[in-house]
């Protein structure tokens, strides 16, 4: 069986655990990273079919930086950015304008906390297209 | 000393007067010691109120020497236009000799000062010097207020993020538990409930720390100062930390030869020691040690908490006492903290005319040393160095 590989980076160990659990339940192979640094290391050896990044880790823009790496190394790999910053800053990433989308290069933005059915739907949409 | 040039517009219908003022100000340098500023002048001249208004509309100067009696519209008219447009210009009104009435009228309207004709260059410089000082200090106060507003906003947005994170973690577990597609076994259910409780506990600790911080910051907390034996407080802090220490196999010892008495609010000394001892346990290795030392030394109470824990890298020690700056690495990943504890310790130490220091070696351990004056009339009540003066 050709198991699809998903790289997840989140510095909150519980969120990492939850997203991993949900995706393993869907039959995917999951690579977990606790930081931007760990995710960068993982990207050197693994070619993920999908990447899910928390936005704020050791840096405020960790998710964007990782997104940039993925698109440079593996242009075909879709990226989901997870963020909890919307409420705190008044920024809304869940429906970015086409202009912002082209600049950030992520395929989808999801707000934390993630709803299982929403995450599954997005992952299936991006992997089965 | 920061050098800068201020623009000064001189409005007078007598050419001789304009040129005399320009000559006097051309090489005039004026120092504002409090703001560490050295000010020189770029002098511009206008022969009428109309011309002055045109110059102001193009680019408002910082200062103006404005003659009251002009050919066309009067100095008062010009002043009124400046005030209507809420322009930030300090106006010194030049009035005729013995016309105190005009001077009073102008300053009542909003002119900063007045200068009665005839005046010597020195008299003029004195008035200009005063206006410059006012301008610079006012600007400094405004910048400071702006800066504080920014810091406050930053603090609040980080706080919102820190409060949201545990809620998201707990909600995430609940949604998984609720999810019908994930039939979870009893063991993982137990784990998810356990983690949720841990995160909620972390959140209530954050709220308690925040309340401590607010009380210290506002300086409004009712402080009861009385002789406090720091050794007694240390003993209680050790008892409080004992359950967590036992779980980790960490042993805590107390080193004190005699009581260490200081004039203090017992609650505040307790907050200091509780924070340090609980950190020493949290960031320790399994089977590690914590040593709490109290001693009196030249009018100071010296409280020391040494651990055999994970230590802090030299590049991280600078950020250690800032709000919400938690050191993130593979050792601290699963340790929960509000990110406020050490900043609270630092503020409290300041209240007692003291300070907190850290010495640390990664992988070996850290020693935190707090020095508190034993005899201060602590600032919260005297107002000398109020907690609210300490920058957040």
The parts of chain A where pLDDT drops under 50 for at least 5 residues are none
Structural class of chain A, please? alpha/beta
What's the CATH class label of chain A? Answer: Alpha Beta
Oligomer: heterodimer
From N to C, what is the helix and strand string of chain B? EHEEHEHEHEHHEHEEHEEHHEEH
**Rg calculated over all Cα atoms of chain A:** 13 Å
Runs of chain B in which pLDDT lies below 50 for 5 or more consecutive residues are 378-392
The CATH topology of the largest domain in chain B is: Heat Shock Protein 90
- Average pLDDT rating of chain A: 84
CATH architecture of chain A: 3-Layer(aba) Sandwich
Count the helices of chain B. How many? 11
Biggest sheet strand order of chain B reads 2-3-1-4-5-6
How many whole angstroms does the radius of gyration of chain B measure?
Answer: 32 Å
Mean pLDDT across all amino acids of chain B: 87
CATH top level of the largest domain in chain B is Alpha Beta
Our count of domains of chain A comes out at: 1
Proportion of helical residues of chain B: 40-55%
